[in-house]
Structures are given as structure tokens and as C-alpha cells.
């Protein structure tokens, strides 16, 4: 007699293993797998494993995921079309909440976006843009009682800001941003907030004038970049400081402490030869 050989199908696997299989599929295969049966549809309907096929499709399609190295392989038209149409596929909304804040702007303006509730579009916006930028787009003040109310929907805010940033990046146009706000951290006078025409704002020129006013013109100017982990995706913040050997009364310990907390400056105890002097922009 021969023993009856048992077979194991995909439906017999535990949900955790099915999610692992899903994470290693291509986007097209993952969609097909998720729709193969009602059980698989139930297991994959809210699985976090969807982000891997989506990111793999983005890399294969030549779509840049922000804060990662640009794709180095020739783009695939099939993967690009599949990713661009993913918004109309049965993919969990949480995967798009993770993905949309980090995809490049040019792709987002061409792709089919998913139908998400307003609360999830708000989360996507908050992951991508600064709160001050969002407040200018969504808040309106009542004329009578001064109360705040929201204008439009969060999806519209997302598309408007993405389109504005892409237009500015491609054309150097700042027509909609008439003024630029910047902050100066003084050595003793605290913080001052300033405003200047966007077209005229040159941070290095402004900082050189601050150095001249504080008799620091012969010291070295350094641009410090704030690590990306502290910032929304489409934001880069740089700080201009003066570095040099100084007596204690010229150092700016407030700026050094702040940049040390943000990871943009390391206080290594090397003494006055390694200090931030005067104001910081």
C-alpha cells in the first residue's frame, strides 16, 4: 500500500505567511492574488504588505521615491502604467496613505489617484507639507465672529500644492508666493521673524549682511542642513551660521543647543575654536 500524499494549497497557509507571499509579488501578481478567492481577498484587504509591491513597481517604473536614491534601471512602461492605474485597483487605502506622501510630484500629477475619505487625504497632506503651508490653504476666517472654517477638501489641497511646487520647480515662478518668511536667531536678542519678496530673497546675501552688522565678516559661513527625518517630505530647511574661534561673549549657545538637538550640529567639546558666532539665519 502507498500512503496518500497530502497537498497544501495557498488557501491552507496562515494569514501571516500569505502576507509574506504578497510582499514578494509584483504589483500585478499581488492584485491577482488578492482577488483569487474570498478568503484571500479578506486576508489581503487590509494587509500592510501591500507597500512592498507598490514600492517595487515605482522603482521598476522609474518613479522616484523621495529621500531615496533615484532609480538606476531603465524604466518599464508596463510597471509605470500599472502603478499609475493602481488608484482604481482593490488596494487597501492605508497603503496609499504611506505611498502618496513620498512619490515624485510629476508622477502624482499624471497618475490615477485613489478614492479616499477626507480624513486620509488630510493625513497624506500632513505627512508631506508643513503645517503653516496647509493652514494658509484650508483656513478661512469669518468676517463677523472671526471663527475659522475650512475651504475645499483635503484632496484638492494636496493636488493644488503638488501642482504649485512642480510649476515652481520647472519654471522658477513664484507668482503665488508673494512674500518669503525667514527667522533670525540672535545671540542675545532672541528670535526675530522677517518677511521679504520671494523674488528678491537670497538667504546667503541676507546672512552676509547680518555678519557685516555684527562685525563677523572675516569669519567662515557654513550652511547646516536639518536632517530629513524631522521634516515633511517636500521641505528642506537649511541654517546659515558663522564658524570660528571666538571669546565666550561672541558664541551663540542657543543656536548650538538647538542644532545639537536636531542632529545638525555636534558639540564635541573642542572649545572656542569650534563655536557658532553671532546670529543664525
UniProtKB/TrEMBL annotation:
InterPro entries to which the protein is assigned, alphabetical: F-box-like_dom_sf, F-box_dom
* Ranges for domain F-box: 7-53
Highest taxon of the lineage: Eukaryota
Kindly give the PROSITE patterns that the UniProt entry links to this protein: FBOX (PS50181)
Name the UniProt record assigns to this protein: F-box domain-containing protein
Q: Which organism is it from?
A: Leucosporidium creatinivorum
Amino acid at each position: 500500500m502507498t500512503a496518500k500524499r497530502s497537498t497544501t494549497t495557498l488557501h491552507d497557509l496562515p494569514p501571516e505567511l500569505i502576507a509574506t507571499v504578497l510582499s514578494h509579488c509584483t504589483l500585478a501578481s499581488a492584485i491577482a492574488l488578492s482577488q483569487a478567492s474570498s478568503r484571500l481577498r479578506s486576508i489581503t484587504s487590509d494587509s500592510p504588505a501591500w507597500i512592498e509591491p507598490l514600492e517595487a513597481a515605482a522603482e521598476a517604473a522609474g518613479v522616484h521615491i523621495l529621500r531615496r536614491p533615484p532609480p538606476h534601471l531603465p524604466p518599464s512602461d508596463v510597471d509605470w502604467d500599472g502603478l499609475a492605474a493602481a488608484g482604481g485597483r482593490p488596494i487597501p487605502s492605508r497603503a496609499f496613505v504611506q505611498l502618496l506622501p513620498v512619490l515624485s510630484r510629476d508622477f502624482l500629477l499624471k497618475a490615477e489617484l485613489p478614492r479616499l475619505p477626507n480624513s486620509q487625504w488630510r493625513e497624506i497632506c500632513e505627512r508631506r507639507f508643513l503645517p503653516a503651508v496647509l493652514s494658509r490653504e484650508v483656513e478661512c476666517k469669518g468676517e463677523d465672529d472671526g471663527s475659522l472654517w475650512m475651504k475645499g477638501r483635503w484632496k484638492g489641497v494636496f493636488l493644488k500644492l503638488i501642482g504649485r511646487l512642480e510649476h515652481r520647480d520647472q519654471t522658477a515662478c513664484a507668482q503665488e508666493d508673494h512674500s518669503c518668511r525667514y527667522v533670525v536667531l540672535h545671540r542675545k536678542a532672541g528670535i526675530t521673524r522677517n518677511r521679504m519678496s520671494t523674488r528678491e530673497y537670497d538667504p546667503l546675501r541676507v546672512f552676509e549682511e547680518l555678519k557685516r552688522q555684527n562685525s563677523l565678516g572675516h569669519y567662515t559661513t557654513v550652511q547646516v542642513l536639518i536632517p530629513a527625518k524631522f521634516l515633511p517630505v517636500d521641505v528642506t530647511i537649511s541654517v546659515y551660521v558663522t564658524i570660528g574661534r571666538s571669546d565666550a561673549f561672541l558664541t551663540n549657545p542657543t543656536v548650538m543647543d538647538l542644532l545639537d538637538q536636531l542632529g545638525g550640529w555636534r558639540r564635541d567639546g573642542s572649545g572656542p575654536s569650534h563655536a557658532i558666532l553671532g546670529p543664525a539665519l
